[in-house]
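TL;DR need structure tokens for one chain.
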Amino acid sequence: MQSGLKERLRMLVGAMGDDEFERFMSELLPRIFPGFENLEPSFNFIGKTTKGKCDAHVYHAGDDTYTAIVCTTRQSDIHTKVLDDIQKLAVTKFASKIRRVLLCVNTPVKDEVEEYRAACIDHGWELDALSLERITQHTLAFGDIIEGYFGRLLEYRQDSNAPTISRRFDCGSRIKEAREDLALSPSQLIEKIDFPSEKEWKAIEASDLEVTEKVIDRLCNLGGISSSWLKHGISPKYPCETIYDYQSEKISSIASESPVASYMAIEPEGMEVLLIVRYSEFRWQVFPFGFSMNFWEWVGDEHHIPIIFRLLAEVDRSLNHPYSRVISKSLLKEFYTGTKHPAQLFKQTGVNNYWFDDLFDLYHRFPIAEDKYAHYGNWFVQLQDSFRHYVKQDAISGVRLREDV
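>> reply
TL;DR here they are.
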């Protein structure tokens, strides 16, 4: 448990910027070094660092000497930066009284520390280097600093005392867009995701406050929006998850969540098919199939047709005979782009029909008119003929053709 906390603290300290790191060290150093109670940092009353020849200093009245403190968060070319900072100390007004230089870095200290020490010895100073590892180890001894300084970044799970990082993201404009996609007011949304304050929510949408990862996850679970889009602006906003002919387990996974409704939508020109799933009032998801069902144009891949039939039969069985829609090519493209909530696009799909339900009526037990399914269009007749040609009744293990139509 302690090692987990140490690892997370190391990550947090290592991610600090200059101002934040100097403020943090000004709180930590007096705890770990006797006589550092009168440490004088270089940042001003609003917490911004000011330009100077050292980042902080401590005066030791007993022997009239100083400890000069140098802090850096530089990740690249840190070697040159530290040597330059040491040289700057030589022109301070108390340079002749410096006894020790305390170097604080939020990165590992490697063998170049000997060059830093040699540069200090040239001026008659001692060097003590506090690396990321030493700083983290010292911090572990002070629970009030962990709680006070990192409280906003660390949360404790109820089932253990192990901390997890609570990241915050500056994505207010996308948060607002996601809420508007759901057609919810701020007051309605905070009730849905159990957020404590409407004013704070509005401040998040105005980019005056960052939003925690936990809140983002709740919004994603509510509306099916991509967390990558909310956090980073990475498209698509509403991602599609493709189902291939050998992935019947995905159908079982969808069914295990007990969706409210499901729809099979086909674009008859290209014979591309989508499964549109409504899990709840606000959460929808689109699953394109990784094949087109224009089988009459296939050459050499016909052995996939019985597999596809098996997959569609699993959709029909597991999702309790989905409703059917016929959609346009332009609407199909909009579903693929993932820029609009699927519920908004679904309103453009028209009315329910039964093409998917009727598709499984390959072998009729009773006399019917020859043109029974002609009203769907030639695409349906060709599709049913293709399945009838390549799929024999009871020939596919585990799939028995529907006999109830």
